[in-house]
Amino acid sequence: MNLILLRHGESQWNLENKFTGWHDVKLTKRGVLEAEFAGQELKKNNYNIISIHTSLLNRAIETAKIVMKKIDFSENKLIYNWRLNERHYGALQGLNKSETAKKYGEDQVKIWRRSFDIPPPLLEEEDDRHPKFSKKFQNINTALPKGESLSDVIDRLSPFWSEYLKYIGKNPGDHLIVAHSNSLRAVVKILENLSDEEIIDINIPTGVPLVYSLDQSYNILEKKYLLDDKTLKKMQQSIQNQGKI
Predict the structure, then answer these.
(1) 87: which DSSP letter?
(2) Which residue, 36, 54, 188, 195, is most buried by CB atoms nearer than 10 A?
């Protein structure tokens, strides 16, 4: 089978270089084009996608629905799961990454963005950015995050992942997850069994399908992005530069 990971298209806060986290923002015009590109590539490569999972955040949902139209996948089959939400950036949410680097230093921002187990500064309980104040998350029956490290995201994702592997094991075909930079990095770390150090340098660009061909034991037979290497490296370098002054 093929497991396809897709980070949502460019969002407004991606464009503005802000820590987005659980804040809801829309795709930019470029983001819409990226989502359309992803759908076209999936169709061109004849993937037989039989399931699509996404988060509860608009930018991922919007991307998923654009892709679904391109590949003629029924919208009522889209499966939502809050555990695929982006990492909550705590008190950094809404701040510009470059300005934050000026204030705290590039090294500190890299730690907050890319380290495995160091969370950002946590939100105060009554901060209006706390997820508990969003109607969208009212039905989540567990403690909502005030800020998460990648390790926290993996812990949050684990119940979903266990059930997901059972599901795709019983349903041969190609499966698509449309989510976010860090929720997908969490999946990549688990899938590739990467070390805490190795995951630091993994940068997943917006709107580019990442395809894993798997055997029945979920061993990776092949990994590839549906994009030429030169453009891919340019996009990954751009992600690295977001936390620089």
Answers:
(1) P
(2) 54
- Rounded Cα distance between 150 and 189, Å, is 10
pLDDT along the chain (245 residues), means of 10: 97 95 96 97 96 98 98 95 97 94 90 89 95 94 95 96 96 96 96 93 93 95 92 80 65
Residue in this structure with the two tokens 């929720």, named with its chain if needed: 183
Q: Concatenated DSSP letters for 115-184?
A: -SS-PPPPPPTT-TTSGGG-GGGTT--SPPPSS--HHHHHHHHHHHHHHHHHHHHHS-SEEEEEE-HHHH
The domain segmentation of the chain, as residue ranges, is 1-86, 90-157+196-201
Closest C-alpha among 38, 40, 39, 52 to residue 174? 52
The per-residue pLDDT for 241 is: 64
pTM score: 0.94
Which tokens is 165 given?
A: 């592997």
Q: b/e per residue, 162-183, with b = 16+ CB within 10 A?
A: eebeeebeeeeebbbbbbbbbb
Q: Is residue 180 annotated as part of the catalytic site, yes or no?
A: no
Encoded amino acid at 27, one letter:
L
197 is catalytic: no
For residues 51 and 175, the answer to whether their CB atoms sit within 8 Å is yes
Instruction: Please list, residue by residue across 109-131, b when 16 or more beta carbons sit within 10 angstroms of its beta carbon and e when fewer do.
Output: bebbbbbbeebbeebeeeeebbb
pLDDT reported for residue 167: 96
Superfamily for the 1-86 domain: Phosphoglycerate mutase-like (3.40.50.1240)
